[in-house]
Each structure stands twice: as C-alpha cells, then as structure tokens.
Specification:
The complex is a heterodimer of chains A (115) and B (187). Chain A is mostly helical. Chain A has helices spanning 3-15, 29-39, 45-53, 56-99, 107-114. Chain B is an all-alpha fold. The chains are: A mainly alpha (115), B mainly alpha (187).
Chain lengths: 115, 187
C-alpha cells in the first residue's frame, strides 16, 4: 500500500464514526437498577455520623477551632514561661547573695550591730 | 423542579431522571471503556451515586453536566483498576504462574456504527483507547456523544481553548497511530 493509500485509509478511519448514532441502554435497565437500590442497606448511625463529619463546612469549623485552641495554648504557655523566668532569676540572685554574704545592709541592721 | 423532587426522594422523579439520561450515561461509559456489559454496570453505579448524593447537588452546574462528570470519573476508575489487574497478570506470566495470555482487549464494535464502517471504527476505537485521559475524554464527548466544544468545556471544567487543544492533540495522536497500523498491516 503506498503512502497516499495509507493516508486515505487513515482519513476514512477517522471519519468512520462521524455518522455514528448513540448507543442505547438495554431494556428493563430501570427495573434492574431499582432492584439493586432496594438491596442496598440503609446507612447506619455511624455511617451517617461519618458522612456529616466529612462535610466541608464541618471540617473547616473543626480545623479553625483547632487552630484557635493551639494559638491560645501557645500564648498562655509563653506568658507562663516569661513569669517563671523572672521569678527564677530573682530567687537565683538571692541564693547567690546569701551564699557569698552579700546581703544588702539596712539601717536597722546597722543600728543593731552598733548596739 | 425535577431536582427539588429528587432531593425530596420522590420515586417518580428518579424514574424520570433515569429514563431521560440512561442512554447518555451508557453511551459515554461505553465510549470510554469499550465493553457493553461493564458500561451497563457503570451506568448503574452512576445512578446509584446520584440517588445517594442528590441532596448535596448545589445546582452550580446543569444536572446533565453533573451526570457526565460522574460517568467519566467512574469509567476512568474502572479503566485504572483494569490496568492494575493487567500489570499483575503480566507479572504472573513472568514468574510462570499463569501461562495463558490474560486480559487481551477484545475488538470493540460500537452498536451505533453503520455496518459498512464497522471494521474501520473498531480500529479507531482501539487507537482511542490508548490516548491520554484528557484527550480521550474530550474526543469521546465531542465525537461519540456529540457535545459542542462549550459543553465539553463545561463537563471537563476547562476553557474552550483547552478543549480545542485536547482535540487537536487527540487527532494528531490518532493519525500517528493509524498510520503506523496501516503501514504495518500493508507489509
């Protein structure tokens, strides 16, 4: 077969479905479909719960709540850390001063010593 | 009105829906998977899914567009499952588990093709079967189902320009395949 013939064959093949009509479903399809639907069990409570949990609106709300709770927890944790750092610093300094007898002398201490 | 009735679970409405769209759903599934019994099974799955999820249908697209999309998704899923089984079958052959040639694609004769074009159409459908998914869908919807470029774009959720591109590439690929086929068969 020469090249011209091959091209003609290819064109004819590409055009072979141009006048094609739509395929039709076999008869009693609806009856078989209805029978299949009737056999399907009704969804259980757990399935219904799962279906509502996977709805986009519910997922967005849950995720937002999760993010807000996390931000709140992180904020509280950071505040607590700052406070405990300040307290820890002052108690460390007092301990250091006591160990090396570096306590600050007051007027009352002076007066007592002189007596 | 039909959608409202469907969402309320009216049996009559569902029956009307099936009657109005069963041939369309079947024709699209058949064009993609090229097996009649399986195409009918897919059509059943499509309407079962519609029956179960019609309450979630928001009406952003036409009902027919929604049906086309479900049909295409289920047809492509079926094809992927079949390809996986085929690969497994090839592995079995390699390891000598099964000596039969498994999963040979039978020649497909679309029932809507005229008698004088049947053989050529069978060759064409074999070539369509190996197109990339987007090209296969666009070609099937346009040529097999007869949808306009705009309708194909609505179903595929792309622009008309994209549909034109898919169809152009599909025709190029088909032409290449067919040329190779006829060159080899002429030797």
């Amino acid at each position: 077969m020469d090249i011209k013939n091959i091209h003609e064959q290819v064109d004819a093949t590409l055009q072979s479905i141009d006048t094609m009509s739509r395929a039709e479903m076999s008869t009693f399809f609806y009856t078989r479909l209805q029978a299949k639907l009737d056999k399907q069990p009704a969804p259980t409570r757990w399935q219904l719960l799962f279906m509502s949990l996977t709805k986009p609106a519910f997922a967005v709300v849950t995720l937002s709540l999760f993010v807000v709770l996390n931000i709140t927890a992180i904020t509280i944790t950071l505040k607590d850390k700052q406070q405990s750092t300040t307290t820890a610093e002052s108690s460390t300094m007092q301990g250091f001063a006591q160990e090396y007898n570096l306590s600050v002398s007051t007027v009352y201490t002076d007066k007592t010593d002189r007596k | 009105m039909l959608i409202t009735a469907l969402q309320q679970g009216a049996q009559q409405a569902f029956s009307q829906l099936v009657e109005a769209h069963q041939h369309m759903v079947y024709n699209v599934a058949l064009g993609i998977i090229q097996q009649q019994q399986e195409a009918e099974d897919i059509a059943q799955e499509v309407f079962i899914q519609v029956h179960q999820s019609i309450k979630d249908f928001k009406g952003e697209a036409k009902l027919s567009t929604w049906l086309y999309r479900i049909t295409i998704t289920k047809s492509l899923d079926w094809q992927r499952r079949k390809t996986r089984k085929k690969r497994f079958g090839i592995m079995q052959n390699l390891f000598g588990v099964n000596n039969e040639v498994m999963f040979e694609t039978p020649e497909f004769h679309h029932p809507g093709v005229a008698m004088e074009n049947k053989e050529q159409a069978a060759v064409l459908f074999k070539a369509i079967n190996v197109l990339p998914d987007n090209q296969k869908i666009a070609f099937t919807l346009n040529k097999v189902e007869g949808l306009s470029y705009q309708d194909v774009a609505d179903v595929m959720n792309v622009t008309v320009a994209s549909v034109e591109a898919y169809l152009h590439r599909a025709k190029e690929n088909l032409r290449k395949q067919l040329t190779t086929y006829y060159t080899q068969t002429s030797k």
